[in-house]
Amino acid sequence: MGTNRVGVGSVYLLACLILGALRSCNGGISSSYARSNSISADMPLNSDVFAVPPGYNSPQQVHITQGDHEGKGVIISWVTPDEPGSSEVIYWAENSELKKHAVGTVVTYKYYNYSSPYIHHCTIKNLEYDTKYFYEVGIGNAKRQFWFITPPEVGPDVPYTFGLIGDLGQTFDSNRTLTHYESNPAKGKAVLFVGDLSYADAYPLHDNNRWDSWARFVERSVAYQPWIWSAGNHEIDFLPEYGETEPFKPYTHRYYVPYKSSGSTSPLWYSIKRASAYIIVMSSYSAYGMYTPQYKWLMSELPKVNRSETPWLIVVMHCPLYSSYVHHYMEGETMRVMYEQYFVQYKVDVVFSGHVHAYERTGRVSNIAYNIENGLCTPRNDGLAPVYITIGDGGNQEGLLYEMVDPQPRYSAYREPSYGHGIFDIKNKTHAYFAWHRNQDGYAVEGDSLWFENLYWKSSQDSLSTSF
Ligand SMILES: *[C@@H]1O[C@H](CO)[C@@H](O)[C@H](O)[C@H]1NC(C)=O
Ligand SMILES: *[C@@H]1O[C@H](CO)[C@@H](O)[C@H](O)[C@H]1NC(C)=O
Ligand SMILES: *[C@@H]1O[C@H](CO)[C@@H](O)[C@H](O)[C@H]1NC(C)=O
Ligand SMILES: *[C@@H]1O[C@H](CO)[C@@H](O)[C@H](O)[C@H]1NC(C)=O
Ligand SMILES: [Fe+2]
């Protein structure tokens, strides 16, 4: 019928117009930087970064992380290769003669036919805030000394600078990423590590010697400043064909975190306060549906965050909720459906993830209007929703991901597959500055950046102004 024809034709025209408009107002920037497509190899085991410290049973793989909820504690971990040795740490404040002692524990594990060395963990507590401490591990002529600086007292206007590193691995590119982080004039004081550490599972039988080499590689940073750990898929190490059925076994034996102090029942999800930030670490690879331990913990955790005390609410989880790269596309979708509503409700400032080996930053968007009948399932601009940043570009042996969803979705503000790291620099309770640094640039060069206005303070201002 003629009238119908006209109708169909004009609907078609209209659809083209709308599609055309969508195309021209698609997302932000897809960087056109041209990279080589070569996959980076792991550094050989005889590389300088993997060198074993001299001396019989000398402590190696030294690493620290926050050891309590407020930042007055530190967990010091290290490995002795030949025999258990001592689990004692000697530590003292820079301006003090008084040497204190703390004794930790030693654990080992087996992984198929691999036997771990002796893994020591010692928590030291009740330190002074904002103080440099020296510490010593090992005995006899195999003592090694390091230092760290505790964070300032928790409070709303306390500046603090976090580094962001993800999917690091142990390639030549991994080494460049770490060097760039160390040399960045912004001077990160603690790293939020977004998961996927050693990539030992890329080797036959998940050769756990690569867990050891990785820890020797990163010691030059993590022995001196805490890395806040989250687990990625390369930490699962699930290998039932060889009898290895306990997920996260190497990771949880090697990397202790202060999960009990935030009421968590698992090291895979927990929270800490550090300076003016409240950091919630989640596990993309543990049950997170309703009534699961992780869900119950998060539901009791979010209301506890006092934004007058810690205005910056940061979530770290390995798998991104928003990513517009083809590889891993929508892998975070079930978690998004489950948790995005709470991140919006509790005004999470930023969600940092890895997994996708590239960089991407979204605008402030949310996609929480959908119910099973209304069809409202498209991300929309939402000034009071989190920014999602994918920083899975540490440089592991799987290489970068180049293929992007085209056209760039509107939620995506900037995306580029280059190796690098991030800096989240909290200035005060209202402002923070994020910058992404590529390995191919000079240490101070910012590939992408964004000023953050704190969402809690912003929304209280907004409600003030609308009440007039
Ligand atoms: C473990 O088993 C693999 C495969 O059978 C073998 O190549 C390797 O040498 C063994 N390692 C040890 C420490 O026995
Ligand atoms: C790793 O980087 C450090 C610091 O830049 C350098 O001294 C070292 O030689 C590098 N090692 C390898 C194997 O690339
Ligand atoms: C929240 O933190 C502020 C500032 O530290 C404090 O004055 C207030 O009592 C805290 N509120 C609650 C409910 O603990
Ligand atoms: C907070 O930091 C921002 C950025 O440095 C600055 O513009 C602003 O004035 C600061 N706010 C206060 C209250 O100092
Ligand atoms: Fe991953």
What does this structure look like?
This protein is an alpha+beta fold. It contains seven helices and 26 strands. The chain has an eight-stranded mixed β-sheet with strand order 1-23-19-22-18-17-16-15, with no helix packed on it. Strands 14-13-12-24-25-26 form a six-stranded mixed β-sheet. A four-stranded antiparallel β-sheet has the order 2-3-9-6. The radius of gyration is 23 Å and the shape is globular. The protein binds 2-acetamido-2-deoxy-beta-D-glucopyranose (NAG) (4 copies) and fe (ii) ion. It catalyses: a phosphate monoester + H2O = an alcohol + phosphate. Residues 161-359 form the Calcineurin-like phosphoesterase domain. Residues 59-149 form the Purple acid phosphatase N-terminal domain. Residues 385-442 form the Purple acid phosphatase C-terminal domain.
